[in-house]
Amino acid sequence: MTRTSESSTVEEPQTTPSTRPDANESPGRKIWAISLAVLAAIVAVIPLVTENNYYFDVVIGILLLAAGGSAWNLLGGYTGQISLGHAGFFGLGGYVSVLLFTQHGVTPWIGIPVGGLVAGLVGLLIGGLTLRLRGPFFVLATIAFAQVLLILAINLDDLTGGSPGVSVPFKAGVANMVFDNRGSYVWLIGGFLVVVFGLTAWIETHRLGSQARAVRESRDAAESLGINSTSVKLQMTATSSALTGIVGGLSAYYIAFIDPSSSFGIGRSIDFVLVAIIGGMGTVWGPILGAILIQLLHNELSGALGSSGAGLYLVVYGVLMIVVVLFFPKGIVGGLDIVRRRIRTNREGRARV
Amino acid sequence: MVLLQVLVSGLLLGGVYSLVSVGLTVVFGVVRISNFAHGAFVMLGMYSAYWAHELFALDPYVAAVVIVPLFFLLGMGVYQLAFRHTIGKDPLVQIFVSVGLLVALENLALFLFGADFRTVRTFAGQTAQLGPVNLPVGLLIAFVVSLAVALALMALIQRTKLGRATRAVTQDRVAATLMGVSTHRMYSVAFGISIACTGLAGSLLMPIKAVYPTVGTQFTLVAFVIVVLGGMGSVSGALIGGLVVGLVESLAGYYVSPAYQQLAYFVVFIIVLLARPQGLFGSAVAAEIGEEA
Amino acid sequence: MFRKMRWGVLAIVVAVLAAACGGAAQSGGSTKGISVVNALPFSGGLAEIGQDMYDGADIARQLVNEAGGVKGRQVTFTKVDAPDPQKGVTEVNRVISQDHAPIVFCCYSSSIDLAVSPVTERNKVVMLEAGAIAPEITARGFKYLLRTQSTAAQYAGGALGLIKDEILPKLKMDKSAVSIAIVHEQGSYGKAYAATVQKGVEALGLNVVANESYDADSTDLTSLVLSIKGKNPTIILAASYTNDAVLFFDQMRQQGLAPKVFIGAGGGHSNAVFGKSEGKNANGVFESSSSAHVNPTALSSDMQKVSEEVKKRYTALRHKPVSNQVILGFSGMWTLLKYVLPKADDPTDPASIMKAAAQVNEPLGSLPNGWGVKFDQTGQNTLAEPTVQQWQNSNLVVVYPNKVATAQPTMVPLPGWNQR
């Protein structure tokens, strides 16, 4: 599949997003091992080179977006099931971990994985019900799922504290996952991103990844090759939703606060998809590059234009979103591929001369 | 007696919902695009009616005569400028062009008009009595117009050449293209009709509802629910779907709790989606892209 | 064509990013002035209120700067958009680190405040809240938090006092016959108010027949109106934003729900658009919060002049009368710049500012809404006494408590619809 797309035209590529090293060759795996080490090194070094809390906050914002986008990418990018309801998993993970701590004193080191587990199980359930839906039907079902959770979180006050939200008590300590030094959050959340990255790269280079891509291109063709498409989709859904739930927990502990509308709101789902699509869906690096671009763009726009008229920076942001999506439908990774290919053809051209 | 009032109020609310949804379903059926900026155009329609009233002292119902054709052109413009370039691309590209449009439009309104809540009051604020039932005039007018628009659109699609071409595109795009239907022109007209509907909806909502930059968001999700319930691309489905959602919301608000009004229709939506993904009434579009075989 | 344009577009995006970075880098804080961050919801659903609060605060800044500033130092503002908890946290983090501002004026919404205040607390930066009423905000033992605004309990106190002192005597009904319905939007503001007011009315020995929440963005509230109508309450207590205040009241009229008394709680019922939309039908409606129009005799002589000036400047700026939120924003900033900072040894040092705040003791009448300033240990202003206004002849006038009132409460019980 990946080989054929190399020969297809740039302008109208098939639905395969980009060229990648063949899934079963070991050089591919080696490249990913190196990438993983590079990413881990970057994350490890950041808190050592700066103490500026703003930079930490921007970096953590990027890490959370990148992790959420990568988690979404497993289902949306690799498997082709477009969910706009991942805020549901994000909020579930966040609420489970925070409420376990505030009401039962369970440390977030246990609470956050439990939150991820709950989100994964719910994802499995929702997936079992909705994965046979296609296109817009699946999209809308996932939106409805997150909306239902939003309304419940607002109205089940006794359980969730309702719309005012729940604060995580500010008691610094490793056991509470509350750190005085924000650099620790970079390591914590960055470490998680490295795990997600590694997992994505593993899936990309192993059978599950190629099966998922086959299911995405054509379910019937995949089935005829003996792939159990339902099982593949469910595996990817469970992984994707569980990871998103963990992102929700980490985010809640970083901000030390959780509330229904910013956890379960559709804006959250859109953010995760946006970084994946801007970066390049179905690619390992895509969501990370997308998160960097989106976070910087948003922050810098609001910093520069935030005081020059309400809403102006968001007008520019919206227009840029349209323009970038229109001109780079394959995202940054797709754009880089075009550059790489052009350089190669130039070189080949010269060689022939 | 209360039940009667609850039912009537639900139907009237449903009329407003239908009016907003009809436009969405047309674009969905013909162009296959999920336009998440649909509600933002309703907001623009409301602001247009508001300014027509403030600057030229036009009643919103009169202003609609000007607003609807202008919004038709606006719709065609938006298609040519933005959505035209998404045809044939990944559905996510289409969704995110519309999300970008939503963000830009909402905040453009905020930038230009500020966040103030603005209202227009006319005779439409009065209430008519029909036996024991209270009928708010503004809602009643919106309901009647909504029925008329749906019927007119259905007639347009059934009777005219344009409509036949639209239907052909809705039902089978490849065949329609082979038969020489110019898809871009068709899509452009569909967007024109869709956005014209939001202009009309905005004009009809202005006398009964305050306008502010984010007013459209509450319509977008409900309109999608209705479009799916009614069978994507089906005008009659959107009409009936709107009435059903209005009724569900009204009944749940009264008999369960106002806090769970929206929950009720999302639950109904999910159930219908799982049990009958082609919508309550089915449609060619749903059959094409709906459940996997 | 698309392929060629791609790189142009990329260049534009990069240019915007670069320009934005450059612009942001230049906006560092000056060492001579005193820099205050205004983090309010300037976009999204609460944008109208955020702008009002900011306009009020900015008028306070102008007045102080024109009079020579704080200890001779001019006050400068930085504006950041905090439309929801998450963005509020990011933006406040950004501006604290970049500008090293010692004070953040934030957030109006209780949810945003609860998320942002841990950031200011961790960074040991003063957070000044002039809008949010949730009791939790000052219940967390924060050391760098000041709230000039009332709590929900104080707001509810206004409505309860009015019921006890004015309404029950005027209704001439047996207590057991008086029934209360509470309707509130489901956000933090509505919930905080509804919970405290319900306890209060029950303590008065009155019967609560309904306490219903709804989504402030609703398109239709007829079901709520009908369900309340079925309970036939004597008094309706409401906590609403603007869209829902107008919608609920419209639909009450359409469905003929006619309580003897209607009391809002700031928010939509104090918004000029409510009076404009409902016309004569608004007359007789009470709202319990704070007021821009207290009796001048209740203000200190200095504050009388200042209050007039604030109204004049605001109307010149926005061509409309001041709202409660404008005055709340003004009062918060005025308290900071006029009452707190001059007492601080170093008006840019948070610890010094908090020490000064603890000493402030300005009597009632020191702020345009008749409030005084005295912070308790939690940072809560204890002299934010609630004021009840009533719509009379399509204007809001202060009717309770007596010492700040400009008119007597009338229209109890409310005349029927279209007879007001």
From TrEMBL, chain A:
Its lineage reads:
Bacteria, Bacillati, Actinomycetota, Actinomycetes, Micrococcales
UniProt-listed InterPro entries: ABC_transp_permease (IPR001851), LivM-like (IPR043428)
Protein's UniProt name: ABC transporter permease
Biased-composition ranges, Polar residues, are: 1-21
Where mainly located? membrane
Q: How does it sit in the membrane?
A: Multi-pass membrane protein
Entry's localization field: Cell membrane
Q: Which UniProt keywords apply?
A: Cell membrane, Membrane, Transmembrane, Transmembrane helix
**Keyword Flavoprotein on entry:** no
Q: Which organism is it from?
A: Intrasporangium chromatireducens Q5-1
Q: Is Transit peptide set as a keyword in this record?
A: no
Automatic annotation (TrEMBL), chain B:
Does this entry carry the keyword Transmembrane helix? yes
Write down the membrane topology.
Multi-pass membrane protein
State any single GO MF term. transmembrane transporter activity
Record's CDD domains? Answer: TM_PBP1_LivH_like
Note the InterPro entries from the entry. Answer: ABC_transp_permease, BCAA_transport_permease
This protein's GO CC annotations = plasma membrane
Q: Where in the cell is it found?
A: Cell membrane
Per UniProt, which keywords does this protein have? Amino-acid transport, Cell membrane, Membrane, Transmembrane, Transmembrane helix, Transport
Question: Which residues span the membrane?
Answer: 61-83, 95-115, 135-157, 186-205, 263-287
Broad class of where this protein is predominantly found: membrane
According to its UniProt entry, one GO biological process term is:
amino acid transport
Q: Which family does it belong to?
A: Belongs to the binding-protein-dependent transport system permease family. LivHM subfamily.
- Name of the protein this chain belongs to: Branched-chain amino acid ABC transporter permease
What lineage does UniProt assign to this protein's organism?
Bacteria, Bacillati, Actinomycetota, Actinomycetes, Micrococcales
